[in-house]
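I hope you will forgive my troubling you with a question about protein structure. The matter concerns a single protein, recorded as an amino acid sequence and a row of backbone structure tokens. Please examine both parts with care and let me know of anything in them that strikes you as inconsistent. Thank you for your consideration; the sequence and its tokens are set out here:
***
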Amino acid sequence: MEHVKTLILGGGPAGFTAAIYAARANLSPLVYEGIQPGGQLTTTTIVENFPGWPDGVDANTLMDNMRNQARNFGADIRQGVATAVELGRRPFRITIDAEKEIEADTLIIATGAQARYLGLPSEEKFKGAGVSACATCDGFFYRKRTVAVVGGGDTACEEALYLSSLAKKVYMIVRRDVFRASKVMQNKVLAKENIEVLWNCNTQEVLGDENGVTGARLLRKDGTTLDIAIDGFFLAIGHTPASALFAPWLKLDEAGYIVTGAKSSETSIPGVFAAGDVQDPRYRQAVTAAASGCMAARDAEKFLLENVN
């Protein structure tokens, strides 16, 4: 059985930043990239809000650079997915791809979260070409254009309000005749002149051509359809953190996010740390994920100095 000081699960901004800091601290980190190497960021195209790139950077290029930087400092980066964990004793035992077992003195969980999509083939077709699950990430590309936001909760209202400051017009596609959002958020949305709420509507199809999204076909509650012309289609129906594997061991919140200490990456088990979107239901940005990866590596380093000979 292989034994390591620090095992990092996840190959997004949080995981790779943790690997960079852990490697520079001589912790010889082992990284398993998981089911989506590069993380959620690789589902977008150009990233314009990551510091240090004044003209923006291709998302895959950014993640390749992070991966190479971690590898250059000595991180051992491998392909594989954790399929079982034993966190009841230390060293922790993690099974990769149902066959390889690793013992780790510290564990950093950076497995991320997946945006929820509607499951439409047309939606999948236009991901990164007009379909997005992050207004903060991609809204800038739709200045003075027309977009739609799917959802009726607080997150959808926040996304619509953010986009309304950039776009010419914002449709909100709400499947019921009321919002699920708080009254404050509802009032803000309804007060914006360039936001139009389409009640009792479900998206039947995302429309587009070789250049990307051009519209959406909606199915009303009464059975009729409505086509709207849009340039961007934003999902705001929630995220699912990749935390199910750890649920028997770690404290999670009601939405499944791993609970960490205030201003810390520490979980409910000493020696286990969480970073990035798997513990962040609020910000969900590459830069905040990277920052929390730094925190996790520093916390793991401190734990090893104090607890492992």
Remarks:
- The first helix runs from residue 13 to 24.
- The mean pLDDT is 92.
